[in-house]
Design a protein that fits this description.
Elements (H helix, E strand, L loop, with lengths): L4 H46 L8 E2 L2 E9 L4 H15 L7 E8 L4 E15 L2 E16 L2 E13 L7 E4 H4 L2 H4 L8 H25 L1
Antiparallel strand pairs: 1-2, 2-6, 3-4, 4-5, 5-6, 6-7
Length: 212
């Protein structure tokens, strides 16, 4: 059966429109998927950045002091023994440049130390950006919990360049010094703030794993 020319033409137009509709739907789906992924990434970035936002660096009596209490099922004595074992390995070379135990009080389940090590900002081909960080770490064990404190934080940055520069956490990472007037985290202060917060979180995580 031979169809009239105008019917053939209409059928061709319908087929073309159907093809275009499918292509447009496919393009729209890809656009929507891209937008959803972008929004998810932005939300994830915002959540990560919230960790470094104003209020995330506590100052107690004029000193930066990070503090967190870790719940555990252990007694104070058992926690102290586990913490002592962890600290002996964690704060030994090559993990640190230097360390010194200030308090090892088994009776009161308390341990404190000073240490110095490197925080690395960037480490890639021909680029090594790092700082020394010197700090005081205190651990107080009790029944069913251990409290971790990090304070007396000082940095020695770019030591390879004419001796580098030294400054304290109070001068660099506090809310007062780390943000501009619009509330944006400053570049240099921001990298020290992020790395220091991450460093404390890593210590807490290691201790938590040791106790639990």
């Amino acid at each position: 059966m031979i169809l009239p020319r105008y019917i053939k033409k209409n059928l061709y137009i319908c087929a073309l429109l159907a093809t275009l509709t499918i292509k447009i739907e496919h393009i729209m789906k890809r656009i929507l998927l891209t937008l959803c992924l972008g929004m998810s990434l932005m939300a994830g970035w915002a959540q990560v950045e919230a960790k470094y936002a104003a209020g995330s660096v506590p100052v107690v009596n004029g000193r930066v002091m990070f503090q967190e209490t870790i719940p555990t099922t252990l007694s104070a004595d058992a926690s102290y023994k586990k913490i002592s074992t962890w600290a002996k390995e964690r704060f030994n070379k090559p993990n640190v440049i230097i360390s010194k135990f200030i308090t090892k009080d088994a009776r009161n389940s308390q341990l404190s130390l000073t240490a110095e090590e490197y925080l690395v900002f960037t480490n890639r081909f021909f680029v090594l950006d790092r700082t020394r960080i010197n700090y005081w770490l205190e651990l107080q064990c009790a029944d069913n919990s251990t409290t971790v404190k990090l304070t007396r934080i000082n940095y020695w940055y770019e030591e390879e360049r004419d001796g580098g520069i030294k400054f304290s956490a109070e001068e660099m990472i506090t809310d007062e010094n780390a943000f501009n007037k619009k509330g944006k985290l400053l570049k240099d202060q921001g990298k020290f703030r992020r790395k220091t917060i991450d460093f404390f979180e890593e210590c807490v995580e290691q201790i938590s794993q040791q106790l639990n």
